[in-house]
Automatic annotation (TrEMBL):
Transmembrane segments annotated in the record for this chain: 41-66, 93-110, 155-177, 189-211, 231-254, 275-296, 316-338, 383-404
Species, as recorded: Scophthalmus maximus
InterPro entries hit by this protein: S04_transporter_CS, SLC26A/SulP_dom, SLC26A/SulP_fam, STAS_dom, STAS_dom_sf
Keywords, ordered alphabetically: Membrane, Transmembrane, Transmembrane helix
Membrane-topology descriptor: Multi-pass membrane protein
Pfam families: STAS, Sulfate_transp
Gene3D superfamilies: STAS domain
Example of a GO MF term: secondary active sulfate transmembrane transporter activity
Protein name, UniProt field: Solute carrier family 26 member 2
PROSITE patterns hit by this protein: SLC26A, STAS
Length: 671
């Protein structure tokens, strides 16, 4: 009984420890908060959070425009995501909020669903939640998913929240199934090209606000070209007030943002020039009556407080499921890449699967409060993220209505100015091309597809281009012949180094790629070319020679007169050629140190090479095989049983090239 009791207590203690570890892993704040050095860090985190929170106010309002939402929903999104990531995130140096590329993707889905539902104008967006009744469209028109009595603004955030909820579910499921590793398949060149292409689309979508034009967002593919065509056609309808305001704000923000970037190492926090511009522009618009006197588009009514939670529109999920998946992948990839960059810089680890959970819940939970998709946006600690949330809470409860007269063109300027980093990548293209043409090609293909064709398609094309480039590299690999260094038993490529020596009758080759179904025929062809003896062609030539010799012997028996000198000379020449081919290479050693894996086709290719050469009297052995390659050879039956004439594995596979060379040389002496 005492033993059973002891075992039970040990099992219970182990279970409690495992449960505690799981809770701590799922809520990282429980780990880092007790060790937070309040006296040393709180002042810096509070100041940083205050500045970031102030910067988030104009950015949240501006990016709402990009996502086709009212300004209040951008403030909701930044507020809720900052709190949730502080509790669930593992990175101590990033914040989560509104991200331009994701806003673009959400906005495209929202505009598409609005068009399908029958909302053909933009009058509801930016006019606040209490839009006038002229914007209301009842159900029964379009796709049938519209809620009765829901105006354009209401339906837009319903679509946005549903997309956000679906994307969050995808991310949580990917974290549950431990598929955080998928981020490694999104290379830096791919993500950079995608972000740059999406930035071009974002820039194009904001030009109409800079000019004060009221144009619907084009749907489908080639939206960039369609938008520029529509802009050029309607250029004569430019609102001069919006144009002048846009130019003035650009002239102020671009140099001041450059100053922030140049002196960011000396500044504890960036100077919030955007907020200054927003305040001054709002005051000018309010007292100048820009909306009534000049027809300028303004933000409109921004209510205070929070709305009651609501569920996503379940009937809409099938329509947005595919779009939500691409949004989930992009949001996660951006967050993980930034998290790992700061974690490496500051010396701690980031759990990719936990990040998937964190970003997923940053989308699922806020979606019930009319928020849209978020991702990582900057650098700050979790505590400063909570301080930023407090700043946003103050704006939501008190200050938000004061932005009623803020012109939309000012919001567009903020978006455009923040695209500088992505657009600067064009200047790096020559350098990328010099460093690595494959990565530069992936960047160009992804950027061009994302901007010119379709944003989501650009991500898929980029992934496929990266995959084909990897496959293409294995297709372009050629067999190289190795030579031995004079001073030691070291083998390298004969074409790359001088002073290397070869062994008479023994050729050593290396293939620097895996051998699998897609390149096994290229491996054999390249090896035969380097050896200088194609066993298949040689056997065919010998059969033809044998057949021709037999026919000549039959002719000798039947014909009384022949020319022996010519026939014997021909036969002698053929035999001489055959003997020359056999003498050139008697043994082939294949260095497998660069072969990372073999599939069934790869094992069969090596077996065919060995058999074909052995039929011609040429010995083939392998050297320096990885453990996984040796296992694949054994499972594939490459090594015959010890009782067979070929001997055991030791006669076919060697640990070093030198051992293999000595073996085939001794074998030649014995024969």
């Amino acid at each position: 009984y005492s033993l059973v009791k002891t075992d039970f207590l040990h099992l219970l203690a182990k279970t409690v420890l495992m449960a505690k570890s799981k809770v701590l892993d799922f809520f990282p704040i429980v780990r880092w908060l007790p060790s937070y050095q309040l006296r040393d860090w709180i002042l810096g985190d509070a100041m940083s959070g205050l500045i970031v929170g102030i910067l988030l106010v104009p950015q949240s309002i501006a990016y709402s425009l990009l996502a086709s939402q009212d300004p209040i929903y951008g403030l909701y999104t930044s507020f809720f995501s900052a709190i949730i990531y502080a509790v669930l995130g593992t990175s101590r140096h990033i914040s989560v909020g509104i991200f331009g590329v994701l806003c673009l993707l959400v906005g495209q889905v929202v505009d598409r669903e609005l068009a399908l539902a029958g909302y053909l104008t933009e009058s509801g967006i930016g006019s606040g939640i209490s839009s006038n009744d002229s914007a209301v469209l009842l159900a029964g028109q379009g796709n049938g998913s519209v809620v009765l009595g829901c105006d354009r603004s209401c339906y837009a955030i319903t679509v946005g929240a549903t997309v956000t909820f679906t994307a969050g579910v995808y991310q949580v499921l990917m974290g549950l199934f431990q598929v955080g590793f998928v981020s490694v398949y999104l290379s830096d060149s791919l993500l950079s090209g995608f972000a740059t292409g999406a930035s071009l689309t974002i820039l194009t979508s904001q030009v109409k606000y800079l000019l004060g034009l009221k144009l619907p967002r084009p749907q489908g593919w080639f939206t960039l070209c369609k938008t520029w065509y529509s802009l050029l056609v309607n250029l004569g309808s430019t609102n001069i007030c919006d144009l002048v305001t846009s130019l003035v704000c650009l002239l102020v923000l671009i140099p001041t943002k450059e100053l922030n970037d140049r002196f960011k190492a000396k500044l504890k926090a960036p100077i919030p020039f955007e907020l200054f511009v927003v305040i001054i522009a709002t005051l000018a618009s309010h007292f100048g009556h820009f909306d009534t006197a000049y027809g300028s588009s303004v933000a409109g009514v921004i209510p205070t407080g929070f709305l009651a939670p609501q569920l996503p529109l379940w009937s809409l999920i099938p329509n947005v499921a595919v779009d939500a998946f691409s949004i989930a992948i992009v949001g996660f990839a951006i967050t993980v890449s930034l998290s790992e960059m700061f974690a490496k810089k500051h010396g701690y680890a980031v759990d990719a699967n936990q990040e998937m959970y964190a970003i997923g819940f940053c989308n699922i939970l806020p979606s019930f409060f009319r928020c849209f998709t978020t991702s990582s946006t900057g650098c700050q600690t979790q505590v400063s993220g909570l301080v930023s949330a407090l700043v946003l809470l103050l704006v939501l409860l008190v200050i938000a209505p004061l932005f009623y007269s803020l012109q939309k063109c000012v919001l567009a300027v903020i978006i455009v100015v923040n695209l500088r980093g992505a657009l600067r990548k064009f200047a790096d293209v020559p350098r990328m091309w010099r460093v690595n043409r494959v990565d530069a090609s992936i960047w160009l293909v992804t950027m061009a597809t994302s901007s010119l064709v379709n944003t989501e398609l650009g991500l898929l094309v980029g992934v496929l281009a990266s995959a084909f480039c990897v496959l293409g590299r294995t297709q372009r690999v050629r067999v190289c012949e190795l030579g031995r260094a004079a001073a030691r038993e070291h083998y390298e490529d004969l074409t790359s180094y001088r002073g290397l020596r070869t062994h008479p009758g023994v050729a050593v080759f290396r293939y620097e790629a895996p051998i699998y179904y897609a390149n096994q025929s290229l491996f054999k062809k390249s090896l035969y070319d380097r050896v200088g003896l194609d066993p298949v062609k040689e056997k065919t030539r010998r059969l033809k020679f044998k057949k021709k010799t037999s026919e000549q012997e039959e002719e000798v028996a039947d014909v009384t007169y022949r020319k022996p000198e010519k026939d014997e000379a021909t036969a002698a020449a053929t035999v001489t050629l055959d003997e020359k081919s056999r003498r050139s290479v008697r043994s082939v050693v294949i260095d497998c140190s660069a072969i990372l894996f073999l599939d069934t086709a790869g094992v069969n290719a090596l077996k065919e090479v060995r058999k074909d050469y052995e039929d011609l009297g040429v010995t083939v052995v392998l050297a320096q095989c990885h453990t996984s390659v040796r296992d694949a050879l054994e499972r594939g039956g490459y090594c015959p049983d010890a009782g067979e004439d070929h001997g055991g594995e030791r006669r076919l596979v060697f640990f070093t090239i030198a051992d293999a060379v000595r073996y085939v040389q001794n074998l030649s002496l014995q024969s």
